[in-house]
Amino acid sequence: MPEGDAIHRAAQCLQVLVGEELEVETPHPRAAVKQLAPILDGRRLEAVDAVGKNLLLRFEGGVVLRSHLRMKGRWRVLPRDAQIFGTPWLVLRGDEYVGVMSGGSVLELDRGIARRLGPDILAEPPDFGAMVRNFRAVDPSREVGDALLDQRLVAGIGNLWKAESLWGARVSPWSSLAAVSDEALRGVLEEANRLMRNRLDGASGRARAYRRKGRPCPRCGAPIRSWPQGDGARMAYWCPACQKGEEPPAK
Ligand SMILES: [Zn+2]
Question: How far is ligand 1, taken at its centre, from the CA of residue 170, in Å?
């Protein structure tokens, strides 16, 4: 059984990922149902601490993931492109290393955060009406790309699906909420739901905009742009030709 020292060792090993924006996956079905990946993917890991037998992973934006290894769980840190065997619960991929947790464990978001979450983008059926009302209740000068990541307005959209759903709906992440109609906003949310649902159902697929800076837009061929957005300065990706609208405030 992993004891406190094992947890501290894991925390030490995972320090190589601190400061990086991580690609987050939850391959194990019992982990996938927790919907953690969309909340964590693309977020910068700010700290990893061992607290008793718990490992606390603090991500930007105040998101805290608690992991407890129970009986058989374990963490490994491997080179980024190492082959990963089995079906891990959590995969945190950074620039050079990947942290892999396998063997079953407790994985949960800090409760305070869970209580403040907006309607779930993957609920069946999703409450798009309530989501749009939430967007209309905040500052209309806010950029739509920034608002989509606000888990109090809609829960579950991370940096990857933000980029992909805005691209799919042809809405610029830099448009103010005031400049986006209810219909267009709903279109973005429906696209996020469709893409994420497909992925949950096992569809593979390549990103069209996310992490494709400088590569041609699959729809029109213009180079995809990227620029940090919002308080967390998370990278936005968009096609300036077919997602027309406002541009980033600073060039
Ligand atoms: Zn395009």
Answer: 8
Please report the pLDDT score of residue 98 as a whole number. Answer: 96
Other CB atoms within a 10 A radius of the CB of residue 152 amount to: 12
Per-residue pLDDT at 114: 54
CB atoms within 10 A of CB 180: 22
CB proximity list for 206: less than 8 A, separation 6 or greater: none
The residue-averaged pLDDT of 109-137 equals 83
Highest-pLDDT range among 30-39, 71-80, 99-108: 71-80
250 CA → ligand 1 middle, Å: 21
Centroid of ligand 1 to alpha carbon of 15 (angstroms): 38
Question: Is residue 24 a contact partner of residue 40, using CB atoms and an 8 Å limit?
Answer: yes
CA 151 to chain centre: 10
For residue 163, the CA-to-ligand 1 centroid distance in Å is: 13
| 60 Cα–ligand 1 center, Å | 30
Mean pLDDT, the chain, integer: 87
Least confident range from 16-20, 59-63, 209-213: namely 59-63
126: nearest Cα among 181, 178, 200, 27 = 200
State pTM to two decimals: 0.62
